[in-house]
Amino acid sequence: GLQEAVKEALQRGQNILVFPGDITNTENFNQSLKAWGDISLGKEDTARQQVVSLQQAHPLLHDLFEKVPDNIQLPVTLKRYPIDASIAANQQALMSFRDGKPFLAQYSLMQGKLYLCASGLDDRSSNFALSYFFVPILYKMAVQSGGGNMYALSIGSNAPLWLPVAGSDDRKVWHLSRNSFDAIPSQ
Questions:
Q1: pLDDT in tens, 72-126
Q2: Which of 71, 103, 144, 161 holds its CA 20 to 30 A away from the CA of 46?
Q3: 23-78 per-position pLDDT tens digit
């Protein structure tokens, strides 16, 4: 299952990024997290929350800007699951809320890294997928992964996902979309 696939990927030194969807049973979700590290999600919080801090020294963020613009728009959540982790999970918060809880955190587990976001990708949860940070962070996570050149796969299959680029030029922009939701903005 998914729990075992993630654990095997972490043992191989790969990076795994998890976005919680609509979690109907937080206890069951937390059992999966516990199989990878001492991490848990709290009860759903639907109060509007602004991400207020950015760990610019983190390898995924440190060279995104020459100088961080004064008017940088950090993500906002409309639905989040507060993240808790023990010291054993080796948590590093890349982005955090005012209450100190991470919006996006890295955990060094086994030989790999687990990245956990406090909210889902849909626009009813947060605006992260439309933010400046989304595409560069995903790209750097994939490049820094120790798992080889396989950047996308389906659970249960080790076959890589290849995107055809024959006949295209450098101006082509790829989008992940479903219905009217566009997950990757043009950059």
A1: 789 999 999 999 999 999 999 999 999 999 999 999 999 999 999 999 999 999 9
A2: 71
A3: 989 999 999 899 999 999 999 999 999 999 999 888 888 777 666 667 778 999 99
CA distances from 37 to 78, 115, 116, 136, 169 (A): 27, 12, 12, 26, 43
**Host H or E run for residue 84:** strand 83-85
Give start and end residues of each alpha helix (H) in 20-178: 26-36, 134-144
How many other β-carbons are positioned within 10 Å of the β-carbon of residue 81? 24
Q: Would residue 49 be called left, alpha or beta, if left means φ above 0 and alpha means ψ between -120 and 50 degrees? A: beta
How many Cβ atoms sit within 10 Å of the Cβ of residue 141?
Answer: 19
Partners of 72 in beta bridges: none
Give the max Cα distance, the chain: 50
How many angstroms separate the CA atoms of 184 and 44, rounded?
A: 25
What is the number of other CB atoms lying within 10 angstroms of the CB of residue 145?
A: 20
Q: Tokens representing 155?
A: 């659970």
- Tally Cβ neighbours within 10 Å of residue 49: 22
CA 25, CA 87: separation in Å to the nearest integer?
Answer: 25
